[in-house]
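Weekly modeling sync, notes
Attendees: S.R. (lead), two postdocs, one rotation student

Agenda item 3: backlog of single-chain predictions. S.R. asked that every request posted to the team notebook include the full sequence so nobody has to chase files. The rotation student volunteered to paste the first one in as an example of the format we agreed on. Action items at the bottom.

Example entry:
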Amino acid sequence: MKKLIALILTLAMVACLFVGCSDDADKPDETGGKTDASFTIGFPWDTANTDATWISIYESVKVAVEAAGGELITVQTDLTADNLINNITELISRDVDGILFMPASDSMLPTVDAMCAEAGVYWATMFRTISDDDIRAQIYASKWFAGGCNEDDEACAANIVKKMAEMGVENLCCINIAKGDTSSDLRDKGAAKGVQETGINLLNTTYGITVTTDMTKTINSYIAAYPEMDGILLLGTYCPSALPTIEKALADNGKAGEVIVGRIDFDSTMGDYLAEGSFHVSYGGQQQIDPLMSTVILVNKVLGTPINEDGATIIITPYLELTSADEAAQYTEFFLGSTPIYTKEEISQKMIKKNNPDVTVDYIYELLDAFSVADVVARHS
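Predicted structure, as returned to the notebook:
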């Protein structure tokens, strides 16, 4: 009898164990470990930012991860080097298979690579190149560095300065993100080249503005100090509502429409000012294509089907020129709307190598050659 009771209790315990396992499998993973997705990608990003462009960057990464069958795991960051290192440490502890981020500097990359190599985690970058020759050689030789996308910031800055010179600018003031940032330094270099080639007088450049009050003060000080100023170029900024703040400061000083205003990086506020004639030219579009393609590079590596079989995959994504209110309206609708520039189905069929064996670096460049505002409108209108 005792043996029978013991047998019944044992069977009951085993049944409970299986029921418990079944219940746990249906629960969301609250520990940060693996989920039902075939892989996970960690992404440090400023998810608290409500700017439409920043949201579209997140959505571009998310759609590419999900198109390949993975899940995106995000952590909030301020995008500084120290915080990014902490973010990456956290994501590694959450057992992700890959990490995508926007580097704050070249110097942080060897640390990231060492951490990822120890954990066996692939990683990729977006929006940034590696300027330091020694660091670039070290990182490109790493088996854990999948690669990433960047733009030719130097050429872009030179070209927009030349465009503004064609529009009549002779005396220019610039605003840029903090010195030491790879993109900032390259845009400075390009602006200097454009100034030299056109003969424009570069009056001043202000760096590291992150709040609208400082942006207003800077524009007011430019107007007071340089009455000859006829152009303002926003080379880059992390300041929210940067363009509306500049436009308001110019209007308050009776300068709206008199000063030619240009910027690198499209935003959602350009259209009205282009229609009014107080804003004139922008180079951008990379905010959506760059993170999407960077993610495609990383997920293909994680899936074991790297785009480049012989090392890291490095892609240079294009800047698009925008000078009309109609183009701005199309950008706002088709780049910042509910449908990403490439849908999940398009990414899965065209850019995931396990689904399309023809995916190579040359193939990606063929896609990029066709990429434009008009291209996105034609595919999704």
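Discussion: group reviewed the output briefly. Confidence is low (pLDDT under 50) at residues 1-35.
Action items: rotation student to repeat for the remaining queue; S.R. to check formatting next week.
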